[in-house]
């Protein structure tokens, strides 16, 4: 068939994706005869659309899954979405507002109807977009964290943990999100350094003309003050013991208490105590039995308890109260101040510490196996630098606030009796039985019970994800959970190492007594060229669908992987996608070249036999290197290995070696060997570039219906003749040097040159003589002991190569070029020596790496010697 000049992704991608789906290549069923390879997708928010972080994350997952499938494993990649309580509820409220509906006028059931309507309309968008990327998920297994059985598993776990005494309800200081109007766990709060003001405010001492000054960044909270605290060892305030201070503006008398918690060196050494609005003040309040006055409504406006500025926003009040304090003589001074402020990870609102009745999961004992098994590498983090961060978090973990003041989510299965007591049960019928037992009231009816209004934290459902997608909570001994669990590899972002990864590990040991996965590959953050995190607000994030339309899915996939080492941020530049597209075109053009050859029956020439043998060895060498990169989760390095094998070794060297003169046919033996090389090369490229590799593979020869490169066997490495490859590299270097000489001297590639070589190993050049002559356009290759007259020389390892030229040689220019190369080689030798003299490197690096450095040292020394001799002969 006639191939188009340019590869056109638009004509190819949808065609092959539909083919893969139709043949169910991505679908998996338990098969005891095959080794399972299981990956669960980090479920994107149901509200989401594809962004660059998703592109990177899912490309890496797809590379791992496609390779495993070709290795003959039973690859199962489970897709799905997360119900994202806070984000989705915000979207639904916004939708209702556009329709002129206020959420507060709806019943819970009515609101949930709208939420499901929104989810069904928009919830599948991101999964459809992942198909454009080529993601080979088992779409028949798509799960959603709010579907019936998934929710049932969450409720079952809540009840189990409650019955074990691990879940409790209590009044605690929590992180309150005034925009989302819900509590957040500590991990959902992002702390940032912000420019603020430090306000110095004086409080009058009761029945005295004296004042005590405190410093605060939140002057609005003085309306909730219930004490002033000083250090008992602070002589400045010794005389105030037992006295009271008057809160400015509202004239409330509050006690002056003593506690060593107060830092005498910070500020004025006197601390205002607002137990309802500061974590540390809350602890002091508990200890000293202080009154707690909550001055904030759930939306961040001031409550009636504040007495002043009721109903006004906290930040508006901050400015107003500072002005009023100043006017009434209570503001001593204000100064610029940098402070750490907590922001909601979901809404970006400034968090308010708030006392609230919430549900908590005790974390002290349940986390122990999850810490041990990461520290002992039963579960490996890639890169391992994240182990210290993980340990620090796990060793200092706080109880997890698992309740959220929302309607969208799994409603907490706690039912309150008329007397305020509660029971925990899966259904109201079961709750009624428990309630009658607890109260002793046999006349109690279901209508007398009230279910808790709150829902569970979204992470409380997604922490079960590797288990719940296989129904492992409801049916813990079913065939699928026993076959697919534990999963193999998890690919996710470092910022959810604690939100999600740690908690999945906790749940895995609690409910399966097994790790949920063996490897955790932590990607970096995708940033722009200036190092800024990509975001809609900055307008620096390209639309992934537009990128794929412009560069093709394969071009974007390879472009992103060119520079995305694990755990390190990716500085994204659209030129990377252009490079990816160029790579696609290079492979396409190589195939067009081969397809365009006329084939003759006669046997091949010697040069072609050497070329075929060389590429076989080079392929096997690259395959060993590739497998090593995959085993260490160096996905970017793995791609670069295949990239160089395809671009440099196959396209630039091999095809040039075997390409017949223009218009001449190629022998059948070489042609078939070339197709065989291309076939194996396409298999290595397939996980990275699934669409173009399928298109070329299907076009190479007639395939039966149902055949696909995606289920072809992954190549296996054979014996490698390292000595042969070293000799070939020397021959190729001679070709490169002659080509460089032509460029520097302005010589035409069509002008045949003579090459003379001074070497102790003439056999290397004799073996590859035909190839050197062809690729460098050499008319004759001979060996010499002396530098011929009027010749330009260059060094290849320890050998000297000479090309006699017509006319006069510029000796001074020749000297400068040799001296320049000599200086560079000496510097290179110095760096190698430095590495080899480093004991930690020599003892810690793999033996082959150390040997490679020793070889570099020997080659550099030989080259320096040859260059010095060449310089002396001028």
SSE layout and pairing:
Blueprint: H1 9-22, E1 36-40, H2 52-70, E2 74-78, E3 80-81, H3 85-98, H4 108-122, H5 125-133, E4 143-144, H6 148-163, E5 167-177, E6 182-184, E7 189-205, E8 211-216, E9 227-230, E10 244-246, E11 253-258, E12 270-273, H7 279-288, H8 314-327, E13 331-344, E14 352-361, H9 368-375, E15 380-382, H10 386-395, E16 400-401, E17 403-404, E18 414-416, E19 422-424, H11 428-439, E20 450-451, E21 455-456, H12 459-462, H13 465-468, H14 479-484, E22 489-492, H15 497-511, E23 519-522, E24 526-527, H16 544-551, H17 553-561, E25 570-571, H18 574-595, E26 599-600, H19 606-631, H20 635-658, E27 666-667, H21 668-685, H22 690-700, H23 722-745, E28 753-758, H24 762-767, H25 769-776, E29 778-783, E30 791-796, E31 799-804, H26 811-836, H27 839-844, H28 847-872
Helix pairs in contact: 1-22, 3-4, 9-10, 9-15, 16-17, 17-18, 18-20, 19-20, 19-21, 19-23, 20-21, 21-22, 23-25, 26-28
């Amino acid at each position: 068939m006639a191939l188009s000049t340019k590869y056109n992704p638009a004509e190819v991608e949808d065609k092959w994706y539909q083919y893969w789906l139709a043949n169910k290549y991505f679908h998996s069923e338990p098969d005891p005869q095959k080794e399972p390879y299981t990956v669960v997708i980090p479920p994107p928010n149901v509200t989401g659309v594809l962004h660059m972080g998703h592109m990177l994350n899912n490309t890496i997952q797809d590379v791992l899954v496609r390779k495993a499938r070709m290795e003959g494993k039973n690859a199962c990649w489970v897709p799905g979405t997360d119900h994202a309580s806070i984000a989705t509820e915000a979207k639904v409220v916004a939708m209702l507002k556009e329709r002129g509906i206020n959420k507060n006028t709806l019943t819970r059931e009515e609101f949930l109807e709208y939420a499901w309507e929104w989810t069904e309309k928009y919830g599948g968008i991101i999964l459809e977009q992942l198909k454009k990327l080529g993601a080979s998920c088992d779409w028949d297994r798509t799960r959603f964290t709010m579907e019936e059985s998934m929710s049932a598993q969450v409720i079952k776990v809540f009840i189990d943990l409650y019955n074990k005494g691990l879940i409790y309800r209590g009044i605690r200081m929590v992180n309150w999100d005034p925009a989302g109007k819900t509590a957040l766990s500590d991990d959902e709060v992002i702390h940032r350094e912000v420019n603020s003001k430090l306000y110095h405010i004086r409080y009058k001492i009761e029945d005295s003309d004296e004042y005590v000054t405190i410093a605060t960044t939140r002057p609005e909270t003085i309306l909730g003050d219930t004490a002033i605290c000083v250090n008992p060892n602070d002589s400045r305030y010794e005389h105030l013991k037992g006295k009271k201070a008057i809160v400015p503006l509202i004239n409330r008398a509050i006690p002056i208490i003593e506690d060593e918690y107060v830092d005498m060196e910070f500020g004025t050494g006197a601390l205002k105590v607002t137990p309802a609005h500061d974590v540390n003040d809350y602890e002091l309040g508990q200890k000293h039995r202080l009154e707690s006055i909550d001055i904030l409504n759930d939306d961040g406006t001031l409550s009636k308890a504040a007495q002043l500025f009721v109903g006004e926003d906290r930040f508006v009040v901050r400015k107003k109260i500072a002005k009023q304090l100043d006017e009434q003589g209570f503001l001593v001074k204000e100064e610029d101040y940098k402070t750490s402020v907590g922001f909601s990870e979901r809404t970006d609102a400034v968090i308010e510490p708030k006392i609230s009745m919430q549900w908590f999961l005790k974390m002290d004992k349940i986390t122990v196996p999850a810490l041990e098994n990461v520290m002992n590498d039963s579960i490996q983090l890639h890169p391992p630098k994240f182990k210290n961060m993980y340990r620090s978090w796990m060793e200092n973990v706080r109880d997890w606030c698992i309740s959220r003041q929302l309607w969208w989510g799994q409603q907490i299965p706690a039912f309150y009796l008329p007397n305020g007591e509660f029971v925990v049960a899966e259904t109201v019928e079961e709750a009624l039985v428990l309630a009658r037992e607890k109260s002793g009231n046999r006349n109690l009816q279901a209508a007398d019970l009230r279910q808790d209004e709150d829902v569970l934290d979204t992470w409380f459902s997604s922490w079960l994800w590797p288990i719940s997608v296989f129904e492992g909570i409801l049916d813990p001994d079913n065939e699928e959970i026993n076959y697919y669990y534990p999963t193999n590899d998890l690919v996710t972002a470092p910022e959810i190492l604690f939100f999600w990864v740690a908690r999945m590990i906790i749940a895995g040991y609690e409910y399966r007594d097994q790790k949920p996965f063996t490897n955790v590959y932590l990607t970096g953050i995708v940033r722009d060229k200036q190092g800024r995190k990509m975001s809609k607000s900055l307008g620096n994030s390209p639309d992934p669908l537009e990128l794929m339309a412009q560069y093709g899915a394969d071009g974007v996939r390879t472009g992103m992987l060119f520079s995305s080492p694990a755990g390190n941020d990716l500085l994204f530049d659209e030129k990377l996608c252009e490079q990816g597209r160029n790579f696609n075109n290079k492979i396409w053009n190589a195939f067009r070249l081969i397809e365009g050859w006329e084939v003759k029956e006669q046997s091949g020439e010697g040069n072609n036999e050497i070329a075929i043998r060389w590429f076989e060895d080079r392929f096997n060498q690259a395959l060993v290197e590739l497998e090593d990169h995959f085993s260490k989760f160096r996905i970017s390095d793995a791609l670069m290995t295949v990239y160089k094998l395809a671009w440099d070794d196959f396209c630039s060297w091999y095809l040039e070696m075997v390409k017949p003169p223009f218009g001449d046919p190629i022998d059948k033996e070489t042609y078939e060997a070339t197709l065989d090389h291309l076939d194996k090369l396409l298999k290595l490229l397939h996980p990275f570039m699934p669409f173009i590799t399928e298109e070329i593979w299907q076009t190479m020869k007639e395939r039966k219906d149902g055949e696909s490169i995606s289920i072809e066997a992954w190549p296996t490495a054979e014996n490698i003749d390292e000595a042969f490859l070293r000799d070939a590299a020397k021959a190729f270097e001679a070709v490169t040097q002659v080509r460089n000489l032509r460029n520097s001297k302005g010589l035409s590639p069509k002008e045949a040159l003579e090459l003379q070589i001074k070497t102790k190993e003439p056999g290397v050049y004799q073996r590859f003589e035909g190839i050197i002559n062809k690729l460098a356009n050499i008319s004759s290759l001979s060996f010499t002991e002396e530098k011929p007259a009027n010749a330009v020389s260059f060094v290849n390892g320890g050998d000297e190569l000479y090309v006699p030229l017509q006319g006069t040689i510029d000796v001074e220019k020749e000297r400068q070029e040799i001296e320049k190369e000599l200086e560079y080689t000496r510097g290179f030798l110095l760096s190698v020596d430095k590495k080899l003299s480093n004991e930690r490197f020599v003892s810690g690096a793999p033996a082959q790496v150390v040997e490679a450095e020793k070889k570099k040292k020997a080659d550099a020394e030989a080259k320096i010697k040859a260059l010095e001799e060449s310089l002396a002969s001028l």
